[in-house]
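Exercise 3.2. Students should predict the tertiary structure of the chain below and write it as structure tokens, then compare their answer with the key that follows.

Predict this chain's 3D structure.
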Amino acid sequence: MNRDTVFDLREALSRIDDDCETLHAMIEVFLEQGPRDLAAIQEALDRRDAAAAARSAHRFKGSVLQFCADAAVEAAKAVETAGKGGDVEETDRLFRKLETEAARLFEALRAEMKRDLAA
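Answer key:
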């Protein structure tokens, strides 16, 4: 995958037998649930609960995996690992990177939906 590519559409489709309808349904669910998972991480960090942040990051990572979005997966994994270690400051620092990567992914997925609707 090109390092400028936010997610690997071809690989994501191959994992679901090239079913575009299923991919669109997955994107719709993720665009609704993903921001909630990020908010849960932020809320946990606000409470200084690194373990809860780790659990929410794990859930987000699982959702992101289906889109083959390497940078977002790695960012979520870093937050999860730091949270499991109990380091709230490091978890919070890494969460900023996750927010950036998640925003890039949300934007790319929305663009994919629009591209297909226009076709």
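Discussion points: Residues 88-118 form the longest helix (31 residues). The chain has a mean pLDDT of 93.
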